[in-house]
Every structure is written in C-alpha cells, then in structure tokens.
Amino acid sequence: MKPGRFRAVKPEALGMNPFQAIGQDWMLVTAGTLENFNTMTASWGALGVLWGKPIAVCFVRPSRYTFAFMEACEQFTLSFFDEKYRAALDFCGTHSGRNVDKAASTGLTPIAAPSGAIAFEQARLILACRKIYTQDIEPSRILDPSVLSSYENSDYHRMFVGELIECLVAGAGR
Fold first, then answer.
1. What is residue 37's three-state secondary structure?
2. What residues are paired with 168 via a beta bridge?
3. Could you read off the pLDDT of 29-55 as tens digits, one per residue?
4. Count of domains for the chain
5. 27 vs 39: CA distance, rounded Å
6. Is residue 1 part of a domain?
7. Where in the sequence is the domain holding 62, given as residue range(s)?
8. How far apart are CA 25 and CA 22, in angstroms?
9. Burial 32-64 (b: 16+ CB within 10 A, else e)
10. Contact indicator for 38, 77 with CB cutoff of 8 Å
C-alpha cells in the first residue's frame, strides 16, 4: 500500500449511502493473500452494528471461486470504486478466477491493507473485515416466495458477517 494513498477513518465518519454504494455502484469482495486471492463483484450486502460492533455483511454462493477463500481466511475486504472502474467490476462479476487472472485482466492492482487483508489500489474506499459469523441461507426460512427466483439452481448463499477492523478512504493523493 502506497504511503498516504489511504487514510483510516472511523466507520461512523464514512457518510456513505449503503444502498447506492452496494446495490447500484457495486463492490468487490476479496479474500486471500497477495500470492493467492480471489475477488468477485457483489451488489448484495449490508453495513450496520451487531453485538456492539460495526459490521459489514456480504453473501457468497458456494459455487463461486471466492467462496473457498472466504471460508479459509480470517479476513476479507469490500472495495468500492469510482464509476470509471465499472467495466472492471463488470468483468470481475462475469468471469471466474478459476479461469482468468482478474487483476491482470482489469488492470486492478492488489494491495495488502495494514491488517493484511487484500484489496485494490484503485478503490476509493476499503472496508477490511474480520469474520465473526457465518450462516447459510436456508430455503425453509425464506418468507417471501418472490425471493426464491434468485435461487433457481438451489445455489443458496452463505452470509459472512465481518467486524470492520479498518475503514480506509482514498486520500488527497488520488
């Protein structure tokens, strides 16, 4: 991570609209090490407080290559980008890391946050998280039948709840 590129802020100081940032702008969910990681685009997630801790929630299907990295690692990141990176996010959401090097294909530069979690140099915001809870989505617990159309292949997500351990905002050096 380039010195001065990011500055740490408290989660309460982010001043972001999570509905816009997650649902419309999208994010990259990343886990692993600099030597071996994967990332995927996500537009489902949440930010809030749970058990007195600032948290982020993301959802990953077991069929995704990123799933094994999320399971194996103690930490993960959510990286948010300016609109000019939309094509990179689209690529990372439509290609599997099993078959392509997403960073090389998109020009995104992987970096290690101070915590060691993997993110990207081009991000405007990095939320580094320490996993504190996981839970599989259970079809019998889905109360709104319209939601089931998201699971035509019964590939139900696992929910990952992470305590925010670093909130890094791109600094003036951008």
1. strand
2. 8, 126
3. 999 999 999 999 999 999 999 999 999
4. 1
5. 10
6. no
7. 6-170
8. 6
9. beeeebbbbbbebbebeeeeeebbbbbbbeeeb
10. no
